[in-house]
Every structure is written in structure tokens, then in C-alpha cells.
Input
Amino acid sequence: MSDLLFAAEPRQRDIARELYALARDLPLISPHGHVDPGLLAGDEPFGDPARLLIVPDHYVTRMLLSQGIPLARLGVPSRTGVPVEQDPRAIWRLLAENWYLFRGTPSRLWLERTLSTVFGVDTRLGPDTADQIYDTVAERLAEPAFRPRALFERFGIEVLATTESPLDDLSRHAKLAADGWGGPGGRVITTFRPDDVVDMEFDGWASSVSRLGEITGEDTATYRGYLAALWSRRQAFQAAGATSSDHGHPTAHTTLLTSAEAARLFERGLRGRASAADAEAFRGHMLVEFARMSIEDGMVLQLHPGAVRNHNRSLHAVHGRDVGGDIPQATDYVHALAPLLEAYGNDPRLRVVLYTLDEDVFTRELAPLAGGYAALYLGAPWWFLDSPDGLRRYRDAVTETAGFYNTAGFADDTRAFCSIPVRHEVARRADAAYLARLVAEGRLPLDEAAETIADLAYHLPKKVFRL
Output
């Protein structure tokens, strides 16, 4: 067995090997991610290696962009008509020529482990090996064993949650359900992500609200009809297997407004007269509303705040959202969440999973909050923190205050389907290494560490996300 991410000290390394062996082959629970459900609904062969492993991976493309390589040269689609590279081999060669940029990064670890464990490629990527590796991966992708559903089975995924807007018709999930893959308790389920109809600062928010009304038959020109429409879509999502909602707000701000106050904000937004403060107040109010809805319908509420979206405005103008132009910011939770927690934080029917991009708050705010309210759990390190060292820092920061069982297990949060098993492997190895240190230091018996790693890898995410 590889000793990847295990301590160099022999005793800790031996214990980590033993613990990792207990978690290595447990089924994968992927309770939060962004894989396109059409990938599995259609089960068509993947395209070329570049469009599978490079073009959609903003971890990879943003590093190259930081060195002056335009995303157009990497084949990232343009929304302005700017010509983009169409030759997948040229894109692959460009990455190989610049592979040295990724030394020490999780992106390199994930891609190398994906090439090795998924495609059987152990040759080191570089300018001289680029074509050889490309051809090997391309040959694999042509085989039936490398179609999406076959890989899903090989990866050992038990549940994969995708993420859709309330405006999605859920037809891809209907196809999965018809094939025995989706629906409540299915292998592929959806997640309710209402940001585009909640955040007034989204492009086309008023039009999206109108479309929400058309889909549901509710009058979303009124605040009461808007709430009814959201409730209707939550029910439709639950019928498609959803057990959670997800909210990617700029901050964790929550506020308690009266229905009349919320209606006035809503109407200002529809008229195009809402200020930034109005948008923030409405988002904060709606988080409390969604917590109330969660108590009624049992859906877990995930909160992903702290990203300044589209910070690189020229990148957004040319290529749109979710291409690597977002930047983390400092985030307050103690004061921001107080209104929601005062209303519902001690209600055991509510389950809120908190994520952060600001690891300074793990020890100061998030761990004490999760240790002090029945409704709160800590989500896995997310995005810029989803790395071997980020996972270690997370355990160091939160365990003494929140323990292991106020955390929600690992969530890969990825669009890159083929990287899912690798990301879970890295998380399980990091947890094995952390637990091994506790055992070696006499702080945890080995048998309890064995129970804990199985819980972190498998049982906790199933429980917390009500799977």
C-alpha cells in the first residue's frame, strides 16, 4: 500500500496504514457536488482527454491563467465570440508544457492520481510524454468499461448528489429514475440550489422569478406567490431524490423580517430598484425562511458563503461564471447567523451544514458554534481549502472544540467526475494520518480510531445528509 500523505515517523505511519485499510474500500458518499446529471442519464462515452480533464477544471485553468495563458487557448468556451482552441491535443500539450507550475499543489496530486488509478497511467506528465499519455487515455475512453455508469460502479459510489436550480426541469433526473438510478433513495439524486431566484444581484433575477412562476403556476409577482413557488419546487426536488438544499450566498448574513418588510424588498427587486443593502437583507431573510422550510420538509440546509464571485471581471465578461474568477473573503458567522440560530438553532429537526473559505474562523467561530447548537454541523474544507494540508489544518482546528461528530464527513464538491474517487482517497488518507497521530500520542485507543475513520468516511455523511 502506498504511504501517500502518511507521517514519516515509522509508528504513526504503520498505524495510518492500518486505519486507512479499514476505510479504503468503503462505498463513496458524495453528498454535495456539481457533476452534470446528463452525464449519467445519457451514459454516452466521454469526449477527448482534454475536454474531460482540463477544460472544465478551473483548478487547472486558473493556474495557467495566472501565468498569462488565456483560457481561450485552453478551450474554455467563450460567450463573446472570442475564438477558442478546438484541438484537444494542443490543449493537452499546453498543460504538459506547463506542468511544472503545479508542483506541490492538490491539482497535481488529483490529476496524477486520476491518471494512475482510473486510467492506469503512471508515466509522469511532461512535454516528452504528453502525446503518449493522451493516446492512452483516449484509448481507454473508447472502451465500454470507461463509460460514465461503468465508472460509477467501479468507483464504488453509493450516492452522488448533483446540484440544480429550481428552474431546472429535472428531466435528466427523471431519466435516471426511469432507469433505476434516481429518485428517493437512488444512486444519483439532485440538490435544491435556489441562488438564481433568491439573489437579486444575479443577472436576470427578475426574469428568473417570473420563470419560476410559469413553472409552478404560482403568481411570483407577489411575495406570497413567490414563497409558494419555492415550496412547490422543493417538493418536486424531493420527489427527484433531494435530501438537501444548497445556498452559495456572498456572506452568512441572516435577518428576521416581517412578511410586509420582505414583500417590500421583493417588490423593489422586481422593479429593478433594489440596492446592494436590499439584496443582502433579502438573502439573509430568505435563509431564515429556508431554515423554516427545512424544519417542515426535512431537507438539510447547506450554506456555502465567502466567495467574491467573478472578482476577475474581464474573465467573467468573456467566459462567464465558474471558470476560476472567484476569490475568498473573510466571513463572519457568529453575528451573521445569530438571527437564524435564535429562531431555530436548538431545534433538532433542523440540520445546517456550514462551509467556509476563511479557515481563520474554524477555531474561533465555526467549531464553537457547531459545539453549541443542535442544528449545526461543520462541512468539509471547501474549494481552496480542499487539499491535504487544508484537511489536516481543519482537523487540528476543529476537533478539540467540536469533536468528530459535529462534522459532516467529506464532500468532494467537484464537477470533475473522474476525480471523485481520488478526492475521497485523499480525504481518507488525511484522516488516517490525523487519527494515527492521536493513537501514537496516547490520546485515542486504536479500536476507537478504527470506528472513527469508518464514521468519517461513510457513516457520518449518510447520517448528516439523511441519505
